[in-house]
Specification:
35% helix, Rossmann fold, two-stranded antiparallel ribbon, alpha/beta, five-stranded parallel beta sheet, 189 residues, single chain
């Protein structure tokens, strides 16, 4: 303890310099205004883990920390699909999660958006399609935006959410899962 106190006395208090003014704050306010104009309130997201390894979930949790400040943008996570505008789906869809994912999709009010996260959600990843896996999310429900990566960074996830939101303004009612061709919009790596 004395050794640590001596070192603190020698070095002094080490802090980071204060940040410079951020021009991005005006962008943040514009984004909040756009979300409120489109939805009349915050964008509500329901996360669904369809069989992932939890790598994507760790990055999703990072979105809620003060660095990314998702709530400050007017975006929040909700516990019920009935309150959600967007489904954030991770992992390849396991056979046992297929029915739960379909019920969650059906419980989400229209117009609904779906973002598939990670290589597993976009392509089935190393699991692919097998007796235990339905593969990519678009094999089960329609997907608006696919965000590749293993796992994608919080910034890429936020870009995917904002891309889906940007495309929602001209979106018509989605096709039922049985009529979906499985096309997705991939964000460049």
């Amino acid at each position: 303890m004395l050794k640590t106190l001596r070192q603190i006395a020698i070095i002094g208090i080490a802090t980071e310099p204060p940040p410079k003014p951020d021009d991005g704050l005006s962008v943040r306010e514009a984004l909040q205004g756009r979300i409120r104009t489109l939805l009349g309130r915050a964008l509500c997201i329901r996360h669904v883990d369809a069989g992932s390894c939890n790598g994507c979930e760790l990055e999703i949790h990072a979105l809620n920390n003060p660095f990314y400040n998702l709530e400050g943008l007017g975006i929040r996570f909700v516990a019920s699909p009935r309150h959600a505008d967007l489904l954030l789906v991770t992992g390849p869809v396991s056979k046992h999660m297929e029915a739960a994912l379909l019920r969650t999709y059906e419980a989400t009010p229209a117009p609904k958006l779906v973002v598939a996260l990670g290589d597993c959600g976009c392509t089935g990843g190393v699991f692919g399609e097998s007796y235990a896996s339905r593969g990519r999310v678009s094999n089960v429900i329609p997907v608006d935006v696919a965000v590749p990566g293993c796992p994608p960074t919080p910034t890429r996830i936020l870009q995917g959410i904002l891309t889906a939101l940007g495309h929602s303004s001209g979106k018509k009612a989605p096709n039922p899962p049985s009529a979906h061709a499985g096309g997705t919009e991939l964000l460049p790596g």
